[in-house]
C-alpha cells in the first residue's frame, strides 16, 4: 500500500449507496442510523418509459425502502431514520453522488456489472471522495481495473456482513494502489459511527471470514456424510457447545441462503488455480446441488435444510428437517450426545472445547466428529497467515477477530487451539500422521520458558493496552495485540490492576483517573443479594470507595447488562411464605437504587444488550447513562405478573410529571396534562415494552435526551468513564430527595383503570393482566389521593412495594415466574 498521495476525505458527512438489494439497502439504513444523509440508487425497472414518473423509475428503491421499514430484525434504530435516505435511480440521479464523501457500490456479484456502474459513477465523483465496493470475494484489483489512476488511489473493498446493523465485522481490502489515508479515514468512520470491528484482509479469494467460514462449513458437511450423521445432529454439534451460534451449521445456512453459500463456494473454486490452498477446490455436496435445483434456498423461500410445519399447541413454530440421503423432510428430533450433556456443566467455553476435543474417539460419537473438525480447522487457519499477500491475513489476530465478529464465534480458531492445548493436540495429530502447518511448527520451536504454560498463540501481558501478546509467525516472536485507542474492557484492566473488592455477583475495579467501575458478573447478571449489597455498600456516602474515587461507572463485559432481579431467589422466598424476607429483599433493592441516585459522586450506568426489569431501574436512577446502541431495554415485570418494585415506577412517574408540568405551569391542580404525559409511561410498563435500540429506549423515556449513545461496543467502557469524569469535573452535586411531587391522583387512576377494563372486555388481556395493570396504574397515579397532592419519593417507593408484595401472593404470578424460569418465556395466564 503506497503512502498517502491524495487529499483523502477527513470526515464522512454524506454517503451514497449504489444498489438497493438486501445488502445495499441495509447498509444505507445503518448509515442513516448513524445520523448521516444517504443517497440510495438502483436500476430503472426494465421496460419503464423514459417519461414515467419518478416513483415508477425508482420503483426498486422505493420497494427496498418499504421493506426496510418492515424488516425483522429491524434495520433502523427508530423508523424516523428512514427520512435521511434520498432515493433515486442510476439513469436519472447518479449526479446526486457528487456531494457525497463516500460512495459504496453494492450491486450483483458480477464483474461486468460492477465495472460498468463504477465507470459511470466515476464521472460524478468529486475530488477527495472515497469509492469502495462491497463484495464477498471478487478480486478488488479486478474490480478496480478500468478506473482512472486518481480514482484507484481512493478505491478499495469494504465487505459488510449481513445484516449490517447487527454483524460487527467489516473487512477492508486494499489494492497495491490504495491510498493509506483514505482507508484510515473510512476505517475510523466505520469504527466510531457504524460500530464496526475493522479487519484488514489481503486481496485473496473470499478474504478472511468467508475463507475460514466456508472451509469450516464445508468440512462439517463432509464429516456428516462420512460419519452418517443427520443435519440436526451436526447443528447440535456445531452450535453453542463450541461457543458458536446456536443455529449450528445448517440453520445458519438457511438464514444466509443456500444459493449465497453456493455462490461463495463456487467463487472460491473459480479462483483456486491462483492460490495455494489445501482445500482450494470446494465441491458442493450433491444433495445441496439438488436442493438448489429445487429452489429450496432457505428461509427466504420457507424451505431449505429445514422447513416450517405449522405451530405447536403453545403457538411456537414447528419445523421439519431434511434427510440429506433421501431428500425427504421429517419431524425434527432432539439429538442426544452424552459428551455435550456433560459439557453443558462447564461454564468456560475454552474448557468446554478442550473437554469435547480430547474425549475418546473410540467410544464417543461426538469426539469422532470434533477431532477432525477442529484439528483441520486449526491447521487450515494457521496456513492462512502470511505477510506476503498470498494469504488473507498478516497475523493470527485478524483471523480470530474476523471469525468472532463475522460468524459470532466466542473464540477464534487460534484461541480455541490454545484452549485445547497446542502441544497435547499436536502430539495426537502427529501420532495419527496428520499434517502440521509450518506456522504451527514455528510456534512449537519458540523457546518458551519453563514457567510458562507451554506453547500458546496468545499470552497475557498486563503492560500492553490489549492485555495480551500474540505469536507473530513472520518474526517468530511475540508482539502486543494491537487495539485502537479507546478500546478496552474490564477484563484487561483487572489483569493490570486487580480489583478493589468483589463478591460472587459484582466487583469494584479502579479504571484510573479517579473513576471506579462496578462490574456485574453473575449468571446473566441477574440481580441477587450479592449485587444489591455490593452496589449499596460501595455508593453510600460513608463508604471508603466514595472517599477514594470521584465518579463511578456501572457496567460489565458480558453479553447482557442484566436480565433483572434474581427470580429464583424471589420464587423460593414466596414458596416458603417468608413474606418478611421478601419484603426486606424489596426494601434492599430500593435502598440500592436510592444509593445510586443520591450518591455524592456521579454514577454513570453503561447498559448494553438486554437491560430488563431491575437493570432498567439501576439505569433510571443514575446521574447519566451511556448505553450501547444495541440496547433491548424494558420494565418487563408485568410479564411475570409483577410491577417494577425497585423505584422504576417512581422514576418514570417523575419524568412524566416533569414533562406534564412543563406543558402548563398550573398542571398540578388540573391533572389533565400530567395524564397525557403519563399515558405512554403506563402503556410502556403495563405492556412490558422492550426497546429494539438505545434510540427507541430514549423515545420510551428510559433514557434522557442528554444521554449519549456509543455505537461500538468495544468503546463503551471508555466512553462511560469519560462521561463520569466530565460530570465530576463539572462540579457534580447529588440531587436532593424530592418531597413535593404532584401526584396525578384518583382522577388519573380512574381513567387508567377504565382503559384496563376496556382492554379486558375486548379480551385483549387476561384477568391477571388486568390485575397487574391496575397495580401499575395505582403506583403511577400516586395512589388514591386528590390530584396535585404533594407526595415524597419515599411515599412512592412504599406504593411500589405494596403493589409488588400483593402480586407476589397471587397464584398466577407464581405460575408466571416458574414458567419463565423454566422456559425463558412469558406465560399468558
How do you describe this structure in short?
By secondary structure, the chain is of the alpha/beta class.
Q: Which helices and strands occur, and which strands form pairs?
A:
Elements: E1 15-18, H1 22-33, E2 38-42, H2 54-57, H3 59-70, E3 85-89, H4 90-93, E4 102-105, H5 111-122, E5 130-133, H6 140-144, H7 149-152, E6 155-160, E7 169-173, H8 180-192, E8 197-200, H9 209-227, H10 231-237, H11 248-256, H12 258-270, H13 286-293, E9 306-311, E10 317-323, E11 328-331, H14 338-343, H15 349-357, H16 365-382, H17 396-406, H18 413-420, H19 422-431, H20 438-445, E12 458-460, E13 468-472, E14 477-480, H21 490-497, E15 501-502, E16 506-512, E17 515-520, H22 529-539, H23 544-548, E18 551-555, H24 567-575, H25 579-597, E19 603-605, E20 609-612, H26 614-620, E21 624-625, E22 631-634, H27 648-661, H28 667-670, H29 672-686, H30 694-699, H31 716-729, E23 741-742, H32 745-761, H33 767-781, E24 790-791, H34 793-808, H35 811-823
Parallel strand pairs: 1-2, 1-4, 2-3, 4-5, 5-6, 7-8, 17-18, 18-19, 19-21, 20-22
Antiparallel strand pairs: 6-7, 9-10, 10-11, 12-13, 13-14, 15-16, 16-17, 23-24
Helix pairs in contact: 1-3, 9-16, 10-11, 15-18, 16-18, 22-25, 24-35, 25-34, 27-29, 27-33, 29-33, 32-33, 33-34
